[in-house]
Amino acid sequence: MRKRATAKQVAEAAGVSKWTVIRAFTPGASITEESKRKVLETAAALNYTPNLLARSLATNATHQVAVFVDDFANPQKLPFLETLTERLQAAGLVVMLININNHFDHVHALLHADQRQVDAIILFGTAFRNETLTDHQLGRGMPPMFVLARDSQIDGVPAVVCDAERALKDIVDHLHERGYRRPGFMTGATVLSTALRRRQHFAEFWEEKGVRDIAVLSAERYSAQAGAEAVRQYLNSTNATDRVDVLMCENDILAIGAMDEMRGKYGLRVPEDMAIVGFDNYELGGSSAYSLTTYEQPRHQMVELIVGMITGRVDAETVSLPGKLVIRGST
């Protein structure tokens, strides 16, 4: 491989000091327009680009952010990741995506990110428990951590979330007004479900309306297949007269899988035989094939806030933002 040109070589060719070369590539640095033009022209001729890793040794900042994700079967992750990576890159930060699932040790992954000297870690949909993040191996020198799109119960780890309490109140009010009285709830992965609090608020608001008996369907993961499997088990084990009249699914991909199974294998009509509600406003759910009632998270606002916290423009504290109910034909 051809050796890269160095700042020293550019400085010698341009007839300036090495520090003038560094200032030319540093946004906001004090340098005359003539000197900057001379340096940039020489750098282009020598095919020189600054070594950001070397510069990080002096600035103590690598401008790298690690994003931890585990539930890749959930397609709603992609719009969030697109928005998140776009905003981080626009802020001059490089994203390091780390796959965390049952096959990888979470503490090891955190230590690995720290060894890469990332400036921050974003926990996005990952099943971290308090005891994991307070492991004795994780010292005080760890980079700051932030949680995106789920609650954080850990001191010193702020979260940016959609207001689950407000969301579920809006959903339950809508379903009650439509005359539904036998609700059910489909959860996703157990740890993540606890962090999302959607089931908890769903039960609380139905209880306020005098409905305490809520059927619970459990999916092992966030995927269409898991949603289909969970509703299949429920329908096979429940008499038609005893079934729920509306099923709230913890997210849209579970709802889509459940709806496909109900209509395809059992011939049930939505919403006449059973209404369906999702969460996230995944694009496919809005198609005529599903017309899924759902709740849309304020994705862009959430991402802007968490990027602002990482860059220091916004105070690092837990923030809960309202979304909006999207009513369609499934209810």
Structural class: alpha/beta
Spell out the CATH superfamily of the largest domain: Response regulator
Residue ranges: pLDDT <50 for 5 or more in a row?
A: none
Envelope shape:
elongated
Report the strand count: 12
What's this model, at a glance?
The chain has 331 residues and is of the alpha/beta class.
What does this structure look like?
With 331 residues, the chain is α/β, with parallel strands linked by helices. The protein folds into 3 domains: 7-50; 63-162 and 299-321, Rossmann fold (3-Layer(aba) Sandwich); 164-296, Rossmann fold. It is built from 13 helices and 12 strands. It has helices spanning 7-14, 18-24, 33-45, 52-59, 77-90, 106-115, 130-133, 164-177, 190-196, 198-208, 224-237, 252-264, 299-311; strands spanning 64-69, 94-99, 120-124, 145-148, 159-162, 183-187, 215-218, 246-249, 275-277, 294-296, 319-321, 324-326. The protein has a 6-stranded parallel β-sheet, sandwiched between helices. The longest helix has 14 residues, at 77-90. The radius of gyration is 25 Å and the shape is elongated.
Characteristic terms for this protein:
single chain, Rossmann fold, 3 domains, 13 helices, 331 residues, four-stranded parallel beta sheet, alpha/beta, 15% strand, Probable transcriptional regulator protein, LacI family, elongated, six-stranded parallel beta sheet
